[in-house]
Amino acid sequence: MPEIEIRPANAEDIKQLVKMDHSYLSNHVWQMDPHFTSGETGAVFREVNLPRKAKVDYPRSPQLLAKHWENYSGVLVAVHAGEPVGYTSLVENMIPITTWVMDLVVHPNLRRQGIGTALVLAALEWTGAQTKSQRLILGMQTKNFPAINLAQRMGFDYCGYIDHYYPNRDIAIFFTKWII
User: Fold this and answer.
1) Helix H segments across 59-154?
2) Are 113 and 104 in contact (CB under 8 A)?
3) Beta strands in the chain (DSSP E)
């Protein structure tokens, strides 16, 4: 992993983070299969291999970060060689005793080098030290297989989904980790 520092973001960081390419590549997706039978409603997710890697647009506009970053409970930035190279935005108490990771983005040239993991670890630490939350939730598109793998690798448990969650109407899936 490149040597990085993780710290709270400032206004200058935000200007650079907004310009970062937020899209990602995925070669798998979690496909939702809804089930409606007599007296039962549910959904099953299954991993599906794509025929080739697909570029997926980030589900929210990066401009929202610039507009609302001061309203988040926290924004942590990963800095490498003096430049912001990734960030996570955190919101406390959308539901009781819970902090949500709203965004987790790493510069495309530095992905798969441990920076995302370091940001999630910093978010867990920040949540335990700065909030009354007892768990951290990661939300992501079902197309974001790299993030799904990250959540599972870090011991987060699948805890649900919301259909049409994002402005582009994509499904969001959620993974949680208790921090107490």
Assistant:
1) 63-68, 115-130, 145-153
2) no
3) 5-8, 24-37, 40-56, 74-80, 83-92, 98-106, 135-141, 157-162, 172-178
Residue 137 backbone phi and psi in degrees, to 5? -115, 135
Per CATH, the number for 5-21+56-178 is 3.40.630.30
* 122-160 confidence digits (pLDDT tens): 999 999 999 999 999 999 999 999 999 999 999 999 999
Beta carbons of 39 and 159 less than 8 angstroms apart: no
Q: Where are the domains of the chain?
A: 5-21+56-178
Q: Which of 72, 97, 55 is nearest to 14 (CA)?
A: 72
| Statement: the pTM of the whole predicted model exceeds 0.90 | yes
